[in-house]
Amino acid sequence: xxxxxxxDYEKIANLYNESGDKATMEYIGENYGIKAPRxxxxxxxxxxxxxxDAENKKIIIPKATEGEIFMGIDEICNKKTSAPKIASVNEVxxxxxxxxxxxLMQEKLMEISKYIKLNRYxxxxxIDRTSLSIDGYQITIN
Length: 142
Fold this sequence. Notes:
With 142 residues, this protein is mainly α. The chain has two domains: 6-60; 89-134, no CATH class. Helices cover 51% and strands 10% of the residues. It is built from seven helices and four strands; from the N terminus they run H-H-H-E-E-H-H-H-E-E-H. It has helices at 9-19, 21-32, 37-46, 66-69, 73-77, 89-113, 129-134; strands at residues 51-53, 58-60, 116-119, 124-127. The radius of gyration is 30 Å and the shape is elongated.
């Protein structure tokens, strides 16, 4: 069984939008020798960049071309650099404070994970009371 090249997806999508489902399946069967052309249509509908509009029964084809996606050599060489953004003192303090909170939370979670294990499969909580007591923690169950 022959495969349909990805380069032909756009041509097949255009045919589907213009001529319909049956004509497209006949075209795929005749030109690519595929016995189940509906699978090819499903693959095209799910292929990244393509999408299917069920209301209008059309395959939406990506509009971006290679030139629009990638920068040309002229753009790369002549690109003007902008001045880097300087963060204000308040932003720096907020970021450093958040990093400190995050680090403290990670330390606390590491400490708790020594004593408490959660088993999601059996929905159980396993608490190591002896290790908690040895390390100086008091246990209270509400």
